[in-house]
Structures are given as C-alpha cells and as structure tokens.
Design brief:
Distance between the termini: 37 Å
Low-confidence stretches: 15-27, 250-259, 261-270
Helix content: over 70%
Radius of gyration: 22 Å
Number of strands: 0
Number of helices: 8
Largest sheet: none
Shape: globular
Length: 270
C-alpha cells in the first residue's frame, strides 16, 4: 500500500518538477492526480461500506454510522436552509461535493499532494457545479425564462443596448463563478502546502519541522473549504430554482433567510 502511495507521490512530484522546468502538466501530472483521486474514491466507498454495516432497524451499531447520520443532517440543514424545502432533492449532489472535497483535502494534508491541490481538478469540480446549476435553472424556468433572467428587468425598446450589456455582464459573472470556486479551493489547499514547506525550510538546520505547527489551521481549512464550496453551490441553486416555488410554498422567506445566513457564514469564513 505504502509502495503504491510512494509511486503516486513520485508521479505527482514528477509533474511538479516538469512544470517548474517549463514542462507543464503532461500525462505524468494526469496519472498522479488520478492515482490520488482513486485513493479518495476507495476511501469513501470503504467508509460507506462500514457505515452501512452499522445500520439496524432500531439503532445504529457503530459510531461511523452515527457520524454519517450527523453528516446527512448537516447537509440537509444546509440545503433546506438556503434553497428551501425543495432543496432536499439536491442533498445527494451536495453530499457528493462535500465528501469528495473534504476527503481530498485530508489527503492533501497528510500526503505530498491531493486532488484538490490541483487547479485542473478544482476547475472540473467548478464546471460540473455551475453546469448543474444552469441545468436546474432551465428545468425550473424553461430555456427562455432562465436566460431572460440574465437580461435584468424589462427596460423598454429604447434601452435595448443597456439590456444587452446587462446580459453580457451576467454571462461573464456566471463564468467567473467557475473561476472563483476553483481558485479559492486551489489557493487554500496548495497555499497551505507552500507555507508549510517554507516554514520547514526555516527550521531545517535545527531539525525542527516548524511547518507542523500549521496542522490545526490546515485541518480547519479542510473543513471550511468543503463547507464554502457546498454552501455556494446551494446559494447558486437557490437563485435559479426558488422562483417556481414562490406560489406553492411558504418557505420562500426561509430561502431568503438562508441567503443572509450564507453571506454571514461566508464573511466569517473568509
């Protein structure tokens, strides 16, 4: 097992070495990240397998199952609090994002690299998230209804150029959501590695791993970054799907409260 991890580390390290010398990300980088992504997926399936064994008709038989229950309640509160009562149908998607990002962050914490320490992987996650939001927006409002929101309020024929400018700005804003989601995650995870390496270099002469003192902060970063990505995903979903529920549910106000909670949590996290 450790031999496999060592080979994966060599692949990722080779990628970084090639990038420093102008080689860029090639097949070595791809297979190095895929190796660690495979470990993340295997770990998640293993945890869910053991959690499933703890299920009982009356009570949970192990702490891992109870932990997954608490994680489900956490994701449910996040989705319903921000999106509204119809947010329950998005719990599986939010759960997948949270678990993949959190476990990948933990791998990046204890191993030389991890999937979320790679900008390409984070960009792929962000593209999937935003494209899924657009798809749900089209399902909720129709193609014309969804894209007409990008044009802002109706301003009349005389102000068509203004409407066109708003439409373009909103399209660019949607594209920038992918950039912000991927860069935020990459910067925090990869930046933690760079900071730890720099501090270790300072204490190298005294054989003191000073970078290890960053471990509590890096562990907190793992949780916060998984939370921010999932929270923003819920906020984006609420913006494009809550309109079709205004007339049928009384939870629109709760969704608005969720937006306020989201903004406060984001401000506290950032």
């Amino acid at each position: 097992m450790w031999d496999l991890i060592g080979r994966g580390t060599m692949l990722a390290a080779g990628a970084a070495h090639g990038e420093e010398h102008g080689g860029g990300h090639g097949p070595v980088a791809y297979w190095g990240i895929m190796f660690y992504l495979g470990l993340v997926v295997i770990t998640l399936f293993g945890l869910m397998h053991f959690a499933k064994q703890g299920l009982n008709t009356r009570f949970f038989k192990n702490k891992l199952t109870a932990s997954f229950e608490q994680l489900y309640y956490f994701i449910e509160n996040l989705a319903v609090g921000i999106i509204g009562s119809h947010g329950r149908k998005y719990i599986p998607m939010v759960m997948v994002f949270w678990m993949i990002i959190f476990v990948s962050n933990i791998f990046a914490l204890f191993f030389p690299t991890g999937p979320t320490a790679d900008l390409g992987f984070n960009a792929a996650l962000a593209i999937i998230a935003i494209m899924y939001v657009q798809w749900e927006g089209i399902r909720a409002n129709g193609v014309f209804g969804h894209f007409s929101h990008f044009a802002g309020p109706k301003l009349g024929m005389a102000l068509i150029p203004i409407t066109g400018m708003i439409f373009i700005i909103e399209l660019v804003s949607e594209m920038m959501k992918m950039v912000s989601l991927s860069l935020r995650l990459f910067g925090n995870i990869d930046g933690g590695h760079k900071a730890a390496e720099a501090m270790n270099a300072l204490g190298e002469s005294a054989y003191v791993p000073i970078g290890a003192f960053l471990m509590p902060i890096k562990l907190l970063t793992c949780v916060v970054q998984a939370l921010i990505f999932s929270l923003l995903f819920c906020v984006y979903l609420s913006l494009v799907t809550h309109h079709d529920h205004d007339e049928h549910h009384d939870d629109h106000g709760h969704a608005g409260d969720g937006h306020d909670v989201a903004h406060h949590e984001l401000q506290a996290a950032v």
